[in-house]
Amino acid sequence: MMDCILAIDQGTTCTRTILFNPQGGIVATAQRDVTQHFPADGWVENDPEEIWQSVVDLCRELLSIAAARGWRVATIGIANQRETTIIWERATGRPIAPAIVWQDRRTARRCRTLIDAGQNPLVQNRTGLPLDPYFSASKIAWLLDNVPFAREAARKGDLAFGTIDCFLLWRLTGGAVHATDATNAARTMLFDIHRQRWDEELLDLFDIPAALLPDVRDNAADFGQTAQRLFPNVLTIGGMAGDQQAATVGQACFSPGMVKSTYGTGCFMVMNTGTTPVVSRHHLLTTLAYRLEGVPTYALEGGIFVAGATIQWLRDSLHLIQSAGQTEELAASLGSNAGIYFVPAFTGLGAPYWDPDARGAIFGLTRTTGIAEIVRAALEAVCYQTNDLLTAMLADAAQPITELRVDGGMAGNSWLMQFLADLLGIPVARPSAIESTAIGAACLAGLQSGLLGGLEDIAAARHAEHVFHPLLPANRRAALLDGWKAAIRRVTLPPARRPRNSGGRVPL
Ligand SMILES: Nc1ncnc2c1ncn2[C@@H]1O[C@H](COP(=O)(O)OP(=O)(O)O)[C@@H](O)[C@H]1O
Ligand SMILES: O=P(O)(O)OC[C@H](O)CO
């Protein structure tokens, strides 16, 4: 009988479940879109019940496939959209309000007030994060302040807080386990990443009772067992991590200087910096890569908020293309970018520019500009932004970066990956399976269950399907980068000239 691992990847817009064999091969997948709700300007919510139902249905679908083929599902691993905040009643498991999604900006004013009161250094020193609505702390405080009787119930210990991993675990275990993992805890802005524990001063700062908080465990740990009758068999849950951290494990970035970049709707780049945290001087986040056997491994992280989303915009709003895959052929049909630069600052710009008021623009249009030129400029923009992040990481970290490991839907575009290698000047390695997030979750559960012996097994199972080597001459590369920098200058204001309380909508 073949042993399998069931991975749950609960993302911002989609839930996926994937069944892996112990060698890391995908044997079955299922997925379902999850609805995002936008009840007010800058607000983004999910229905926790819809998320839960998608997870249960998709797990059952794969468990019945496994049963039909005579496979044994040995353990479950969970990866999840990070920071998204749910508070529920301990007695009933019912959420007291919709989930507040990581992209939600409703707490911008509260964060600004705390920044103006000089609290940012405290937050940054303890958590590695800037004081921003992106993270869970101000979202928890908002729920306690705005849902009737919530604060009183929280003080009495009647409520529980969790990010999506923690809420799913509570439900999967029938309310028996209230726990999260260290990588998810590190994104709440309440967790001291140095001492690896909830921070009382930060809890006071946001007026959050400690009784709300879950236990924090390693990424490979005993997270309990599924409730009787939920599935045909009781299953153990052995792995849990935030999705970008799970992808870091799935990409086997286990040594300092190893970097992965996941290209989906947005793009998140994570660099392993070893067992000592590196403080960024370029507005990157200091966070955890993973924690195993109580030992934290740290990371630097930068995000591009609009990556594949630009391609969706070209397809669904402008109707310039019929499918995302078509962009590869269109870009390759041109000998150059024809001087066109597309800055997709739809919701401002993140690291290293940090301009929430910047807006998108396309420069260099002429009468000969066509769909192919615009598509190519949209793809190139993802590479220029990756280069900006890589430059910031190189400046912050002591290690050289010799390769970029890529995954996510956009990584399937070979023209894009070659241009990325050309621009970064380092090899870009694409694994045979670009589902690195789910692979990472499965590997963590595999470590806990003993199906995998150690990190070396994960590294051995990962294979680069293709390595894209830089081919562009240095002078061409420099000219392209100059064009990008000029385009960026035209959409951003220098920090000193930015409006004070702009309420910009960029997370971070
Ligand atoms: N061949 C391609 N070329 C360019 N973009 C692509 C390609 N395939 C998918 N995408 C983009 O990648 C995104 C989907 O990737 P995926 O990893 O599934 O994202 P997510 O997990 O964020 O939903 C979409 O935004 C889509 O437009
Ligand atoms: O759901 P994704 O893949 O867009 O990832 C979301 C991030 O975890 C947010 O920090």
TrEMBL record:
<dbReference type="GO" id="GO:0006072">
    <property type="term" value="P:glycerol-3-phosphate metabolic process"/>
</dbReference>
<feature type="binding site">
    <location>
        <position position="265"/>
    </location>
    <ligand>
        <name>ATP</name>
    </ligand>
</feature>
<feature type="binding site">
    <location>
        <position position="12"/>
    </location>
    <ligand>
        <name>ADP</name>
    </ligand>
</feature>
<feature type="binding site">
    <location>
        <position position="82"/>
    </location>
    <ligand>
        <name>glycerol</name>
    </ligand>
</feature>
<feature type="binding site">
    <location>
        <position position="413"/>
    </location>
    <ligand>
        <name>ADP</name>
    </ligand>
</feature>
<comment type="similarity">
    <text>Belongs to the FGGY kinase family.</text>
</comment>
<dbReference type="GO" id="GO:0005524">
    <property type="term" value="F:ATP binding"/>
</dbReference>
<comment type="function">
    <text>Key enzyme in the regulation of glycerol uptake and metabolism. Catalyzes the phosphorylation of glycerol to yield sn-glycerol 3-phosphate.</text>
</comment>
<feature type="binding site">
    <location>
        <position position="12"/>
    </location>
    <ligand>
        <name>ATP</name>
    </ligand>
</feature>
<comment type="pathway">
    <text>Polyol metabolism; glycerol degradation via glycerol kinase pathway; sn-glycerol 3-phosphate from glycerol: step 1/1.</text>
</comment>
<dbReference type="InterPro" id="IPR043129">
    <property type="entry name" value="ATPase_NBD"/>
</dbReference>
<feature type="binding site">
    <location>
        <position position="265"/>
    </location>
    <ligand>
        <name>ADP</name>
    </ligand>
</feature>
<dbReference type="InterPro" id="IPR018483">
    <property type="entry name" value="Carb_kinase_FGGY_CS"/>
</dbReference>
<feature type="binding site">
    <location>
        <position position="83"/>
    </location>
    <ligand>
        <name>sn-glycerol 3-phosphate</name>
    </ligand>
</feature>
<dbReference type="GO" id="GO:0019563">
    <property type="term" value="P:glycerol catabolic process"/>
</dbReference>
<feature type="binding site">
    <location>
        <position position="409"/>
    </location>
    <ligand>
        <name>ATP</name>
    </ligand>
</feature>
<feature type="binding site">
    <location>
        <position position="409"/>
    </location>
    <ligand>
        <name>ADP</name>
    </ligand>
</feature>
<feature type="binding site">
    <location>
        <position position="244"/>
    </location>
    <ligand>
        <name>glycerol</name>
    </ligand>
</feature>
<dbReference type="Pfam" id="PF02782">
    <property type="entry name" value="FGGY_C"/>
</dbReference>
<feature type="binding site">
    <location>
        <position position="308"/>
    </location>
    <ligand>
        <name>ADP</name>
    </ligand>
</feature>
<dbReference type="GO" id="GO:0004370">
    <property type="term" value="F:glycerol kinase activity"/>
</dbReference>
<dbReference type="InterPro" id="IPR000577">
    <property type="entry name" value="Carb_kinase_FGGY"/>
</dbReference>
<feature type="binding site">
    <location>
        <position position="134"/>
    </location>
    <ligand>
        <name>sn-glycerol 3-phosphate</name>
    </ligand>
</feature>
<feature type="binding site">
    <location>
        <position position="308"/>
    </location>
    <ligand>
        <name>ATP</name>
    </ligand>
</feature>
<keyword id="KW-0808">Transferase</keyword>
<feature type="binding site">
    <location>
        <position position="243"/>
    </location>
    <ligand>
        <name>sn-glycerol 3-phosphate</name>
    </ligand>
</feature>
<dbReference type="Pfam" id="PF00370">
    <property type="entry name" value="FGGY_N"/>
</dbReference>
<keyword id="KW-0418">Kinase</keyword>
<feature type="domain" description="Carbohydrate kinase FGGY N-terminal">
    <location>
        <begin position="5"/>
        <end position="250"/>
    </location>
</feature>
<dbReference type="InterPro" id="IPR018485">
    <property type="entry name" value="FGGY_C"/>
</dbReference>
<feature type="domain" description="Carbohydrate kinase FGGY C-terminal">
    <location>
        <begin position="261"/>
        <end position="447"/>
    </location>
</feature>
<feature type="binding site">
    <location>
        <position position="82"/>
    </location>
    <ligand>
        <name>sn-glycerol 3-phosphate</name>
    </ligand>
</feature>
<dbReference type="GO" id="GO:0005829">
    <property type="term" value="C:cytosol"/>
</dbReference>
<keyword id="KW-0319">Glycerol metabolism</keyword>
<feature type="binding site">
    <location>
        <position position="83"/>
    </location>
    <ligand>
        <name>glycerol</name>
    </ligand>
</feature>
<protein>
    <recommendedName>
        <fullName>Glycerol kinase</fullName>
        <ecNumber>2.7.1.30</ecNumber>
    </recommendedName>
</protein>
<keyword id="KW-0547">Nucleotide-binding</keyword>
<feature type="binding site">
    <location>
        <position position="12"/>
    </location>
    <ligand>
        <name>sn-glycerol 3-phosphate</name>
    </ligand>
</feature>
<feature type="binding site">
    <location>
        <position position="13"/>
    </location>
    <ligand>
        <name>ATP</name>
    </ligand>
</feature>
<feature type="binding site">
    <location>
        <position position="16"/>
    </location>
    <ligand>
        <name>ADP</name>
    </ligand>
</feature>
<keyword id="KW-0067">ATP-binding</keyword>
<feature type="binding site">
    <location>
        <position position="243"/>
    </location>
    <ligand>
        <name>glycerol</name>
    </ligand>
</feature>
